[in-house]
Amino acid sequence: MALADLEAGHRNDSGIEVALGVLKQLFGDRLQTNQSLREQHSHTTTYIPSQLPDAVVFPHKTEEVAEIVRICAQHKVPVVPFGTGTSLEGGVNAPAGGISVDLMHMNDIISVNSDDLDVTLQPGVTREELNIHLRDQGLFFPIDPGANASLGGMAATRASGTNAVRYGTMRDNVINVTAVMPDGKIIKTGNRARKSSAGYDLTRLLVGSEGTLGIITELTLKLYGIPENISAGICQFETVEAACQTTILAMQAGIPMARIELLDSLMTKITNEYNDLSYDEKPTLMLEFHGTDNGVAEQTQMFNEIAGDFGGSDIQWVSTVEDRNRLWKARHDAYPAMLAHRPGCQGIATDACVPISRLAECLRETIADVERLDLVAPIIGHVGDGNFHVSPLVDMSDSEEVARAETMIERLNLRTIAMEGTCTGEHGIGQGKRRFLKLEHGTGVDVMAAIKMAIDPDNIMNPGKVVSLSD
Amino acid sequence: MALADLEAGHRNDSGIEVALGVLKQLFGDRLQTNQSLREQHSHTTTYIPSQLPDAVVFPHKTEEVAEIVRICAQHKVPVVPFGTGTSLEGGVNAPAGGISVDLMHMNDIISVNSDDLDVTLQPGVTREELNIHLRDQGLFFPIDPGANASLGGMAATRASGTNAVRYGTMRDNVINVTAVMPDGKIIKTGNRARKSSAGYDLTRLLVGSEGTLGIITELTLKLYGIPENISAGICQFETVEAACQTTILAMQAGIPMARIELLDSLMTKITNEYNDLSYDEKPTLMLEFHGTDNGVAEQTQMFNEIAGDFGGSDIQWVSTVEDRNRLWKARHDAYPAMLAHRPGCQGIATDACVPISRLAECLRETIADVERLDLVAPIIGHVGDGNFHVSPLVDMSDSEEVARAETMIERLNLRTIAMEGTCTGEHGIGQGKRRFLKLEHGTGVDVMAAIKMAIDPDNIMNPGKVVSLSD
Q: Which of A136, A371, B35, B145 could be cross-linked to B159 through a Cys-Cys bond (beta carbons 3.0 to 4.6 Å apart)?
């Protein structure tokens, strides 16, 4: 295995030149070809080397995206949708060049329907912008992948994060999308009804398709009332296993945890260092409970009883909203905190997700492997979903260390798949995990390829990601 | 509009003859061609006339289904999957003849993973069989469309029903499926992880595809712990509008209703008649609350306050499990109860689902239309989802009455779509609603057709349903 086993991608230079000329006429200064902007649009929080697009274009509305796609389709030029650039598996790279479509100027919140608990917005709105907008109405959008990602990007990658254990992922929270398809046609995948049996589920087909079937240009999301009581805190354990068993039993007991995040001792230490905190350097669960006052009291009592059975500390509550925000900011800053812990090294995100009954076993074997291979690899995870990230911090100039990290990652993905889990709980396939997609889905990948071929026969939509027709 | 505007279907007589011969050799007595069995396999709880298959075959396992499909694919013979035959829109009709694949002998519960709260089973297991099997383990599967349908059929049609307001629909509760595709290949759409970002969501593509893309031969479903407290009862109102406003506010207040079912005065009367009950003949909400003892107490207090503001009665609780079962049986027997109310007439199910903010308005306009058209049409609905069924009881020999019913249904579907809703919240498209699918989805139907064409180019899988390539 090579960590960055990239497709070269066949460039259609003449097509790109013609399309660029046409687009320049239409978009003027909103089409840019300077090196730094192109670099920025292929750079993501990833170990995968950049592959630059030929230009970046900034549309303002669905019809402009359709116009861009029609021009690119006519000249068989790749189209790579771009949001905040926080993808982890090379999702915004342009292996065959082409046009990066930056959707961040499309950032209108079109309508909040508080009576129906939904919102319709453009894809460039970020989750933090949305929640600031909603706060006065007592509403919030729970999905939180850590990064302040764009909601279009989150839908395209089927993102989830800390709150998914209670509120589901983008799969569960996107009501409909408007999308520009590879032929430039505009479709709307549904209406605002909460359920429908009308035909194939095009919403769920586009959610998680990583821009390979179409570009999401508008979406309607579920909203939730801000709970009467939100309580957060941490609970510490002597071993990862004990934290893990507590999580498993809490989930099995049906406690509606809003957040339950594991940090191993190393990650707790790294979090202390980066955020000037002073938690014991032990395996830690960061917790949040949502409900009525009585409901949260019941939930925390049940949780404390379970944690106590596994030697967990009493919950150390954070009392103010500011302290709670500081706690979750510390959690969200895991990636820069890791990089600061071992300067000059690359953090390589992994994304195992297994049935919760296998979580302790999967973590135990993975930790043993990390130790055996002498890697520095903190662990952090959305353990209520059975999802964890072990992230080796690798000196990429040390080929021997790189090889050991590759071994660990390879074994982790195989272990996860063997335990009836997935190689990616939330990061997506992008370029980095295409080989594991095949291992995980077998003949299912042929069906995915047939769908890709039917919808995008010229393979212009984000080529080289997820399934590619050259496979 | 004609109520039963069926495609004739081009029969491939020579192919059918050859396939029948081959299948007879392989399946012996498990392939039947007698008239009564073929009639039974095209008869559903619907107004749509039967179109008989040429034979019915009873496979025992996935590999046998694959064998059947391969033979039918080779000779371009239609394959129509069959469960309990409770579809409402002609889903099991065979407009071009072919083979009905009865999956009810595939009824093994393969494994209950209580630690992961999931179950893997064959498609012929019914929801009642599953819940009887689970009861001793303190677990249940909530999705409940009324009929004791097969779980494979429920997945194929994206069924929901009374509990969807709390637990979601089959879309939300199917973790993975194993399916035989139109070329006879077997795919498994996922693993047992609770979330995944690995590629296109083939699970959600097959859920709700009504057998037009493949046959589900195994599936893994989410399970839930039986709540500490389940409390059910009814609350009665002076007007449908008041019941509806109570529902809207209860949902907006975030009360986690487990069931909230509306019956208008006529439906309450019909329910009394059929079940020997004596509720006031007023608009009625049948309610169920799930939670801890304290949680249910909180929920019911909140509900009572809202209902009181709209002149609702105090909740009349049903105290024993037997009484609770009797209440929900009365709800589930709505269809035979309606038919008994107007003997000799046909009940025509409709299935409007709108954003909840439009529910009162949609019901008001629909009721006015029913009155204006002088129809007998009781209303029953999963109103927490914005979903309701107004079912004209029509003397099909009275062409003038049939025409009035057609007018009402046509207007209802157009009204629903205009209110950003769907023409089918849970029944599916089948044959009966293909025209409305186009009105609702516009250019999206072209994408559905492209997918159908890519996966089933010879249109052998349940042809004439949802999208057909002859459209």
A: B145
Is 0.90 topped by the overall pTM? yes
Domains of chain A: 13-104 (3.30.43.10), 109-225 (3.30.465.10), 229-418 (3.40.462.10)
Pick from A74, A84, A80: nearest CA to A57: A80
Q: Are B329 and B343 in contact (CB under 8 A)?
A: no
Res A420: pLDDT: 98
List the structure tokens of A40: 């920025």
ipTM: 0.96
Q: How far apart are CA B330 and CA B275, in angstroms?
A: 6
Question: Any CB–CB contact under 8 A between B456 and chain A?
Answer: no
Amino acid at B366: T
SS3 B339: helix
pLDDT at B26: 98
Query: Among residues 296-355 of chain A, which lie with CB inside 8 Å of chain B?
Result: 298, 351, 353-355
B139 backbone φψ class: left, alpha, beta (φ>0; ψ -120 to 50)? beta
Report which residue type is found at A46.
Answer: T
CB-based burial label for A299 (10 Å; 0-12, 13-18, 19+): buried
* C-alpha span between A432 and A3 (Å, rounded): 7
Residue A390 identity (one-letter amino acid): V
Mean pLDDT over the full length of chain A: 95
Q: Among B114, B200, B245, B356, pick the best mutation site for testing chain A contact (most A Cβ within 10 A).
A: B200
CB A59 within 8 A of CB A101: yes
Distance of alpha carbon B185 from alpha carbon A82, whole angstroms: 36
CB atoms near residue B276 (< 10 Å): 7
